[in-house]
Design brief:
Blueprint (H helix, E strand, L loop, with lengths): L4 E8 L4 E8 L1 H6 L8 E8 L3 E4 L10 H6 L3 E4 L7 E3 L6 E2 L1
Parallel strand pairs: 2-3, 4-5
Antiparallel strand pairs: 1-2, 3-7, 4-6
């Protein structure tokens, strides 16, 4: 699996969910999902870098690229909609 590791042993819930913990660059966390082998998958994601994550349909014209660059961050687009969220390594964890 790219960008993460299965919990050892994989945590399975009675409802059939597989829980995977992932630590990777933000761009990988928001664009690449581990193979759930056809089952339900919950990913606990920990970014290793700083990034402004924009929604799938959000216009980049809304982003202050100079400010993002001054923070040493990148701009990445997630698979789903929503507004911009700034994440930093060691600052956030989210469930996907």
């Amino acid at each position: 699996m790219t960008g993460g590791r299965e919990l050892d042993p994989p945590a399975s819930f009675d409802s059939g969910w597989l829980l995977v913990e992932r630590a990777a660059p933000t761009a990988e966390l928001v664009t690449v999902l581990p193979d759930a082998s056809g089952g339900r998958l919950a990913c606990l994601c920990s970014p290793s870098d700083a990034a402004l994550v924009v929604g799938s349909a959000q216009q980049l014209a809304e982003v202050d690229l100079e400010r993002v660059d001054a923070k040493g961050a990148s701009v990445v687009r997630r698979r789903s909609g929503g507004g911009a969220v700034f994440v930093e390594g060691g600052g956030q964890v989210w469930l996907d």
